[in-house]
Each structure stands twice: as C-alpha cells, then as structure tokens.
C-alpha cells in the first residue's frame, strides 16, 4: 500500500515541503510507494515581499508571480481546487469540486491574510499594501499625495513584523526624493510601549526616527476608523487625525482552518518543536498557519519546512521523528531606498541588527530576484 | 489578588511566550485579549522581566482586569481577565 502525504496550500511553506520531500524520497515516489499531493486554491504562486517594492513602482506584478505547476517537482500531484474541509479524525481533505483525498500525513500550509473587516471603518477609511489590489490603490494615492498627515497603524497578529518599519523608512526617503518631505507629517504608531516587538530593533528605530522627523505614538491598538472625519481611535483612547491612513490590518488564517474547527481565527495550536498540531500525530503545521508566538515570515516557513521534511521522511522510513525546530527566523530590514540591515534569531538567541549598508540592500534585491529557487527547494 | 489565589486559577488559555523575541509577550496578550470572549482568563508566561510591568500598564489603559503575577524561577506567569468587549 502506498503512503500519501497531502499538503494543503501552495505558498512558501507548502511548495518547499512538496519539492524537498519529492527530492528526498525519489525512490519511494518512483516505485509508487509514496504519493505527494499539493492542494492549491489558485494556479499561481505569488512572492508577497515584492509588494513592498510594487508600492514604489520598483516591481511589477508580472515579476512577482510564477505558475505553481512549474515550480513543483513533476512527480508532485497538484490539485487546483480549494480545500473546504479538513477532517483530522477521518484523515481526509475535502476539495470544493467534491473530491475527497485520504492521507497518511497532512501538512497544513494555508497561510494568513489581512482582515481589515475586524476593525470598524478600516476598509472604508484605510489603505494597506499587503494585497495586490490594495497595494496598487495605495500606490495611486501616494502618487497624488501633495502633503498632509500620514498615520501608520498596526493590527495584531500580522505577517512580516519588520514591514511597518521598512515602509516607514522607504516612504521617508521617497518623499524626500519627490521634494515634499517637509509637507508630510508622518506618525508611526505601535501596539506596545516601544517601537517594535524586537527590543534591539525598537532601539534602532528610537535612535533613527528623530533624525528623520518621524513622530511616534506607542501603545496604540486600532479600535475604529471614522472615514468621514478622517480619524482613527485606539483601544487606549487616543484619536489621531489623518489625511492618509496607512495600515497593516490584523490578520486571520485561512477560512478552511476555522471551518474545520482546527483553530481560532484560522491559526492552529502547534507544538513549537515538532510542528505537529497539538494532540495529533499526523498533522503538521507550517508557516503563518501556526499559532506560535513567533514571526510570521517566509523565512520562518522555510526553516520550519526543513524540519518537517526530515521528520516526514524519517517517519515514513523508520517510524521516527527526531528533528526539532529551533525557532530560527531571518529577516532583512530596508532602512531607506538604498540601505538595509538584517536580523537573525531563534528560541535561545536574541536578534542583533548590524549597521545598515548598501551591500545588504543589494543582497535583498538579489534575493527578490532569485526567490523562486526557495520554493523549488534549491536555496 | 494574592499569589495564593492565583495558583488555583484555571485559565481559559495559556500563552507561553518564553523564548519568543518577536512579536513578544505583550503583543501576544493583546492578540488574545481581542480574540477571546468576555469572561476569559488569559495566562501569559513570559521570560521577559519587563512584561510584569508592561502588561498591567496596558490593561489599565484599556480597562481590562489585571489579576496578578506569579514570579517563578526565570519566568513570570501573568494573569488577566477580559471583562468587557474591545
Ligand atoms: C508586504 C509583505 C512583505 C513581506 N516581506 C517578507 C520578508 O521580507 N521576509 C519574509 O520572510 N517574509 C515576508 N513576508 C511574509 C511572507 O510572505 C509570509 O510569511 C509567507 O508567505 C508565509 O508562508 P506560508 O507558506 O505560511 O503561507 P503563504 O505563502 O501565504 O501560502 C499559503 C497558500 O495557501 C493558499 N490557501 C489558502 N487557503 C486555501 C485553501 N482553502 N485551499 C487551498 N489553498 C489555500 C493560499 O492561496 C496561499 O497560496 C511578507 C509579506 C508581505 C505581505
């Protein structure tokens, strides 16, 4: 009897796992002892970090998409129908077209998405760049912006925790280049009492923001937006006026996760070391889909994928799952349109950003181009 | 509330934020406070001494209940209750 590994979600984590597993278990695949399926709700694979550059016209949509089929190993089966139910008791994934796939092991990799509907008035009054259409809309707004008050407000949870800082530094530089920086009052708000979740990054921001004339308001959690009055009010009782409201909306996980009763708001309770869904033996969770209190980032999904692949292969071959995720995360941080720094940390090692340089910025731009090697399992 | 009572509290949810540098303990609590229904008791486990100060300060600002903190060796167990919608 052949074994079946089903991966739900063809984003960063899902695609890496499918490809690495196909490489590692080539012989089993060839002999028909193993089948690997990817279930994806869309035919294309989108490189989300590119949105930050698309906002400034530095990347075009076409550069950020590839056909998922072309990224996947030919021996991996691809189902282009959304999963509508995951039945962990019966080991089944139900697709929208009525097909039911039975699995021995399932990997849940359905990611997260901005959910502006969670904040009253946000959809009407706010902008964000975390989705293609919203990013293009904001881009047009910025191109015609002649000056005024910009407020950046941040919801929880959200993916890519450094993006709010990056967009702030990049906008500062961009307004300077357009000669209107002195006409822009930019207020960066943050949910906790410092400027970033990571303490060293918060220090870095506290040191650099005053030099850029960036105003700050900490302990600011979005409660509601009044699109007519152009105000945003926080849970903490502060109201700010804006001409342009830039936000990172709070995120939710995929609907199918909620609908299948696997986790509140679509995030699944996950063991931080084994990456198995709590209380299960054959359900792995990767990337943004976990409820782990760590950064929701492509690099997190990548490092987790390596562990999940090793454990699945080892489990199928010898019934053991010896590998443990150490919490490793790596993030570039753009500090202007021409310089960047980076941070790396794990469960035991705090991050420590290095001095920003043009070299690191170029490294990030290079990675943006060669990203496709990551889901392909090469880089 | 004194520590003795806190030890008997049965939290609705426990968030172990030890060893997680980003987003960090307070942000995890804010997320849970928004997500959980009114009446929930949230236990936050933090390895960061600052949390024992940050959490009550934030709860006070948003008018939610700080139940207290138990200091263990090298970490803090901080209890809060969601007493109204937010
Ligand atoms: C603006 C921006 C900048 C970013 N910058 C960085 C960065 O610099 N570095 C970094 O590391 N990360 C960055 N990220 C975050 C990164 O993109 C995500 O954390 C990463 O994509 C998570 O990978 P994942 O596999 O968990 O989910 P995703 O890559 O989001 O994949 C999930 C997939 O599941 C699919 N899916 C959902 N529901 C279903 C269903 N029912 N059936 C089938 N398929 C389904 C989705 O369509 C999607 O294809 C950024 C994100 C944004 C938005």
TrEMBL record, chain B:
Domain of life: Bacteria
Transmembrane portions of the chain: none
Family: Belongs to the sulfur carrier protein TusA family.
Protein's name according to its UniProt entry: Sulfurtransferase TusA family protein
Keyword annotations from UniProtKB, A to Z: Transferase
PANTHER family: SULFUR CARRIER PROTEIN TUSA, SULFUR CARRIER PROTEIN YEDF-RELATED
Gene3D superfamilies assigned: TusA-like domain
Source species: Candidatus Acidulodesulfobacterium ferriphilum
Domain UPF0033 stretches: 15-39
GO MF term list: transferase activity
């Amino acid at each position: 009897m052949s074994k079946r590994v089903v991966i739900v979600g063809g984003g960063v984590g899902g695609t890496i796992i499918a490809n690495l597993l196909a490489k590692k278990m080539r012989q089993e695949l060839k002999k028909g002892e193993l089948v690997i399926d990817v279930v994806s709700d869309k035919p294309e694979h989108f490189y989300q970090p590119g949105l930050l550059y698309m906002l400034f016209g530095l990347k075009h949509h076409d550069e950020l998409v590839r056909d998922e089929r072309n990224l996947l190993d030919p021996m991996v089966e691809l189902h282009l129908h959304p999963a509508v139910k995951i039945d962990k008791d019966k080991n089944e994934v139900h697709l929208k077209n009525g097909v039911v796939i039975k699995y021995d092991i399932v990997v849940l990799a359905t990611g997260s998405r901005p959910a502006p509907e969670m904040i009253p008035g946000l959809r009407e009054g706010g902008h964000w760049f975390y989705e293609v259409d919203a990013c293009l809309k904001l881009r047009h707004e910025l191109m015609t912006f002649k000056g005024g008050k910009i407020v950046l407000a941040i919801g929880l949870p959200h993916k890519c925790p450094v993006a709010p800082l990056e967009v702030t530094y990049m906008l500062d530089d961009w307004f300077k280049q357009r000669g209107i920086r002195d006409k822009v009052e930019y207020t960066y708000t943050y949910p906790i009492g410092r400027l970033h979740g990571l303490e060293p990054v918060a220090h870095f921001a506290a040191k650099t923001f005053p030099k850029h004339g960036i105003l700050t308001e900490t302990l600011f959690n979005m409660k509601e937006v009044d699109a007519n009055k152009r105000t945003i009010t926080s849970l903490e009782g502060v109201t700010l006026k804006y001409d342009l409201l830039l936000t990172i909306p709070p995120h939710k996980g995929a609907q199918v996760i909620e609908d299948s009763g696997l986790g509140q708001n679509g995030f699944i309770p996950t063991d931080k070391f084994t990456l198995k869904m709590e209380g299960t033996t054959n359900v792995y969770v990767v990337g943004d889909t976990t409820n782990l209190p760590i950064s929701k980032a492509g690099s997190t999904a990548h490092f987790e994928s390596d562990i999940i692949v090793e454990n699945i292969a080892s489990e199928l071959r010898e019934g053991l799952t010896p590998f443990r995720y150490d919490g490793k995360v790596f993030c570039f941080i753009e500090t202007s349109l021409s310089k960047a720094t980076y941070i790396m940390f794990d469960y035991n090692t705090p991050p420590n950003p290095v001095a920003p340089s043009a070299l690191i910025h170029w490294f990030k731009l290079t990675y943006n181009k060669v990203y496709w090697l990551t889901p392909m399992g090469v880089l | 509330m004194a520590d003795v009572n806190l030890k008997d509290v049965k939290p609705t949810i426990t968030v172990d934020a030890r060893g997680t540098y980003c987003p960090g303990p307070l942000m995890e609590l804010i997320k849970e406070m928004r997500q959980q229904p009114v009446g929930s008791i949230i236990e936050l486990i933090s390895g960061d001494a600052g949390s024992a100060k940050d959490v009550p300060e934030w709860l006070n600002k948003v008018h939610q209940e700080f139940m207290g903190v138990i200091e263990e060796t090298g970490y803090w167990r901080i209890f809060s209750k969601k007493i109204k919608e937010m």
